[in-house]
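Before the break, one more example. Copy the sequence into your notebook; we will annotate it together after we see the structure.
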Amino acid sequence: MEKSKQTAKQEKNQVAYWSVIAAIFLTTFKIVVGISTNSLGILSEAAHSGLDLIAALMTYFAVRFSSKPADREHNFGHGKIENFSALFETILLLVTCGWIIFEVIERIFGAKVDILVNKWSFIVILSSIIIDLSRSRALKKVAKKFNSQALEADALHFSSDVYSSAVVLIGLIGVQFNFKYADSIAAFLVAMIVIFISFNLGRRAIDVLLDKAPMGMKEKIESVISNVPGVMHVHDIKVRSSGALILVEMNIHVNETLTIDKAHSISHEVEKKLHENFSDIEVHIHIEPESISNFINDETD
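Here is what the structure looks like once it is written out:
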């Protein structure tokens, strides 16, 4: 078990590290090309990538510290660092969108700004799409494997960059055909895409921070426990998440004639089955006695 946790930590740290490197490269590249061409579309992408860099750094440190075991002050571990990281990333993205929309209004209704579209304009956007697609897939794979919301949030950042870069690319093509508002419209669409993704990401982070039960998890847990021999009834299942860890509390009923040792063995079997079906789960079980007659009456009803 300890070895698998160490492997998970290494994989999460590695994919987060390379995301930081990718974000540094893309942000620098877009800033240089955006300033030299005066393209708001590319500059909005640079701002987006700059926020992605901050988010990637936060994710890197979040996955490092969230894997720390529980201690005297943090009895349930440090997993929620990942969820705080995801929420803060959402706030950063929304601030960026506000700046982009402000600049769009200024350019459409304010002074005319000449945009230089050259081969570097297209190279930076095409490079961004390729790198963002690669990083998004890598992050999604590891996030799904280890149920990491911080890595999933980072994957959303990079995948949103793919769509927004494609929109900017269309805008640059429009400028080439003398459609002067194409770049500003592209930047506005980038902002709309990012706002939509940010709200979804933020809502999920808040759900975890408020201990909302993961959708369908209670039913899945009850289904697994119902197949454990010796469990007569299960109730008061409570589920919440902390980073990648799922915390579960429940009451199970066993035959009142069983010895304490036998009842304890049944609870261990319940834990074993849940660990087999769910990764990163911590279970607390309260055992209650129940008579056979009550159990038969319940089943009949």
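The beta strands are 233-242, 245-255, 281-290. Residues 2-37 form the longest helix (36 residues). Try to locate both features in your own notes.
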